[in-house]
Amino acid sequence: MVLRNGWGSKYLFLQVTSTFYYPIFGKMFLLKPNHILSSNLLRLLIPALLFTLSTCTTKSKPRQIEPSFYYWKSILTLTNFEKQKLDSLKVKTIYLKFFDVDWDEAARKPKPVAKIQASRDELQGGFTIIPTVFITNECIQKIDSSQVKQLAENIYSLILEIKQSTGIDSIPEIQIDCDWTEATKDKYFRLLKNVRHQTQGSRLSCTIRLHQIKFLSKTGVPPVDRGLLMCYNMGNLKNPATKNSILETDELKKYTGNLSRYPLPLDVAFPLFNWKVLYHNNMYSGLIQGLPDEAFSNSFCSKSGNRYQVLKDTLLQGYDLKKGDMLRDEQSDIKEVLAAAGEISRHLKNTPLRVSLYHLDSVILSKYSTHELESIYNSLH
Fold first, then answer.
1. 201 and 232, same structural domain?
2. Model-level pTM?
3. Most CB contacts within 10 A, which of 10, 27, 167, 246?
4. Pairing of strands 353-358, 65-71
């Protein structure tokens, strides 16, 4: 495109190579080769053309991604395979579950359970460890308001004890994991405020469920520095008609309406795990985890789609299965995870983001190639 101005002329010559339409203030203007336009029209056209060219050539910077993993077992023992995966994926941050907090009905007070067992050698290698504490919602429901401050102090004290015994150098962040509800919101938020007061410079984060995003006005915004959005366990686990309670992108889309407006900065986590959901007489009966698909042979069950029908009474590695029971096989399919990541990415602000995978386990990791795991992280760029 060439602009020419004749001496003493009130017209500019706009030379283009082909005919095209251009919109200005809602009207379409026809531009042809060697079209002569008045200066007044060009005063409108040139800024619009320059703006269009600038927006077409300017690319937004990719979002910075920090890859990380959750480790959710009570004994920390990293296999060589797990270490190789961490190295290949350039993962240097691990959310390590230090312990759970459950309700002790006999003592009528909270108690720590499943405290991590880890040697100093296991945590070598330059990893940033983020202590994570899971608190049951029942504990928040039953705790007396007068016990909240003491619970916060006990949580932080035990974190420091584990830090010292495992040789962790520093704690840049502490994460609290609890599926709070509207009914437990006030006590839980008070607990978070008290933990935050204890942390002495460490950032405090907490997990956020999708329903807490959707029903923001009811569940509130926790008083922490940062949230971590758990993009899994969104379906109705106990409903036999549910297709996959771990992750369904169509289900996830129902919860993302408030995501771009959520007032906390958010990191995200995606699932890698799988399980089988057991139903007896069409009623939820529990989860079966850690058994390979090969264990469910045709000798005692039949399979259709992602459902098994138990054909005869069977004791399967400690699980008591009855004739007529139904099992729903739920996987974290890589295509579904990538679709969910793409959906979440559309709603998040273009700020640095920590992306976590749940969780670090050799059996789980063996189901995915390194390229597939990399693609989850990269899909958030």
1. yes
2. 0.83
3. 246
4. parallel
Same domain as 113, residue 36? no
The answer on 242 and 107 residing in a single domain is yes
Residue type, 45: L
| pLDDT tens-digit readout, 306-344 | 999 999 999 999 999 999 999 999 999 999 999 999 999
Residues 324 and 368 grouped into a single domain = no
CB 134 within 8 A of CB 180: no
Domain span at residue 281?
Answer: 275-329
Could you write out the three-class secondary structure of the chain? CEEEECCCCCEEEEECCCCEEEEECCEEEEECCCEEEEHHHHHHHHHHHHHHHHHHHCCCCCCCEEEEEEECCCECCCCHHHHHHHHHCCCCEEEEEEEEEEEECCCCEEEEECCCECCHHHHCCCCEEEEEEEECHHHHHHCCHHHHHHHHHHHHHHHHHHHHHHCCCCCCEEEEECCCCCCCHHHHHHHHHHHHHHCCCCEEEEEEEHHHHHCHHHHCCCCCCEEEEECCCCCCCCCCCCCCCCCCHHHHHHHCCCHHHCCCCEEEEEECCCEEEEEECCEEEEEECCCCHHHCCCCCEEEECCEEEECCCEEECCEEECCCCEEEEECCCHHHHHHHHHHHHHHCCCCCEEEEEECCCHHHHCCCCHHHHHHHHHCCC
Per the structure, how many domains does the chain have? 3
pLDDT tens digits along 185-207 = 999 999 999 999 999 889 999 99
Please check whether residues 166 and 39 belong to one and the same domain. no
